[in-house]
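I hope you will forgive my troubling you with a question about protein structure. I set the record out below, with my sincere thanks for your time.
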Amino acid sequence: MTKATLIKKLKQKGISIPKNASVAELEHRLKYWIDGNGYMFRLALPSSRVGKGHPVQLLESGHIYWIPNSEFAHVIANTKLVYLMGRSQEPPKECIVLDVPKDFNDKWCVGDTDGGHN
């Protein structure tokens, strides 16, 4: 897909487009991000309460993370080990940005997604 096509599709889905984004970055957003505001999470309980290798274990205590609206964010929220601090389209300055890992579908066996649950 061309960069222009990717930008058009992202705009149609309401997904933000960073300045000077590469084609690979745009493809990543199109594949994994869902339209809507991202999530701001803070770890509430030790991540060791879930099985080894769970995505919530990427979070460390004492930090606030911004994660784009995605299946990745939903998997973390569903653990009930995090506080939802709010939602925003863009990550606030005080947040650590945690994007969807490129190997998310393979590593956590969620199957293929087009970012829109279609």
In short: Residues 112-118 have pLDDT under 50 and may be disordered. Residues 45 and 81 are 5 Å apart (CA to CA). The beta strands are 38-43, 64-67, 82-88, 96-97.
